[in-house]
Amino acid sequence: MTPGTRLVSPASYTLDRERFEILQKELVSEVKQHLRGVEDLCIVWTGTAHPYSNLVRTLEHAYFPADIPELVTPECEAGSQFMVVVDTRDGEDAVVHGSRICSRTRPAPAPGGPALSGFPCVDEWIVAGRVSIEDFLRFCDEREYDLDACLSIETNFVARGWHTTGERPSRVAPRHGFSSAAVGYLSFQRAAHRQRPRTGRTCTFMMVNRASIISLDRIGILGEEVPLVPGTNVGGSYRLLAAALTEHNAQTCEPINGQAPVPELILL
After folding, report:
1. With helix as H, strand as E and coil as C, how does the chain read?
2. 217 CB-contact burial (10 Å; exposed 0-12 / middle 13-18 / buried 19+)
3. How confident is the model at residue 244 (pLDDT cuts 50, 70, 90)?
4. CATH number of 17-105+115-267
5. pLDDT at residue 165, as a whole number
6. Cβ atoms 131, 113 nearer than 8 A
7. Distance between CA 172 and CA 176 in Å, rounded?
8. pLDDT-above-70 percentage for the chain
9. What does the domain layout of the chain look like in residue ranges?
10. Is pLDDT above 60 for 212?
């Protein structure tokens, strides 16, 4: 496949092992061509209709079999982009991290239900009563966020090629001190930078836990908690964070401590 080529492939969440490994091998080959023989981690972005996106979908289904049917509405699917981190070092030659981000959609609220934000991870907490749509919109308006230019991180997980439901792959060796998760958060800032509006500001909404916060701290990304309805359950170990594309956060797209940023291949 030629980098940058738009291909149309039906969404599949249940690739069998043979098809998964064929697609992964094609992806690794394309990454190696892009890296010109240098062994490294590489961030790869694909659009919703690209065949490689089905690698992430299949891994999502393995990790979140109960959540995916509720998360992925047709509107979410149409507004999705997929990110993988591919490791070509030491013969690894595999997908080692996967994620899905979404642009804002226009979901219709359930009968009698609250108005929604258009970002699935935010709407999950609105429906649960932890966040009110009025407070969310006020929070965004005060910060001059252009919501149509904002993104949300919907899935974000460590992978290691093919695995079955319930398996948890070992973490990939760091690159210059950055885990594959930290590399993933770096890629989200780049995506936000590409989508920034001419006026207003943009941010990325995400659910984070302690491990996520450690990764964000490691690469210097700052975020702000979305306000909760007073007295509600805060969601256990998770927090709903808005990471604005500030001048500080935008600098994470540049070399860090003199180290070259992780290579990136865009196949949208």
Report:
1. CCCCCCCCCCCCCCCCHHHHHHHHHHHHHHHHHHHCCCCCEEEEEEECCCCCHHHHHHHHHHHCCCCHHHHCCHHHHHCEEEEEEEECHHHCCEEEEEEEEEECCCCCCCCCCCCCCCCHHHHHHHHCCCCCHHHHHHHHHHCCECHHHCEEEEEEEECCCCCCCCCCCCCCCCECCECHHHHHHHHHHHHHHHCCCCCCECEEEEEECHHHHHHHHHHCCCCEECCCCCCCCCCCCCEEEEEECCHHHHHHHCCECCECCCCEEEEC
2. exposed
3. very high
4. 3.40.630.30
5. 46
6. no
7. 12
8. 84
9. 17-105+115-267
10. yes
With a cut of 50, say whether residue 11 has pLDDT above it.
yes
Tokens of 33: 């061509």
Could you give the strand order of the β-sheet that contains 41-47, starting from the edge strand earlier in sequence?
224-225, 239-244, 203-208, 151-158, 94-103, 80-87, 41-47, 264-267
The span from the CA of 203 to the CA of 150, in Å, is 5
| Cβ-contact 183, 85 below 8 angstroms | yes
Q: 180 pLDDT band (50/70/90 cuts)?
A: confident
Torsion sign over Cα 155, 161, 162, 165:
negative
- Nearest 5°: the CA angle 84, 245, 105 is 65
d(CA 56, CA 78): 15
The whole-angstrom separation of Cα 135 and Cα 146 is: 16
Cβ atoms of 243 and 221 within 8 Å: the answer is: yes
Q: Which two tokens stand for residue 50?
A: 């690209």
Read off the pTM.
0.86
pLDDT at 133 over 90: yes
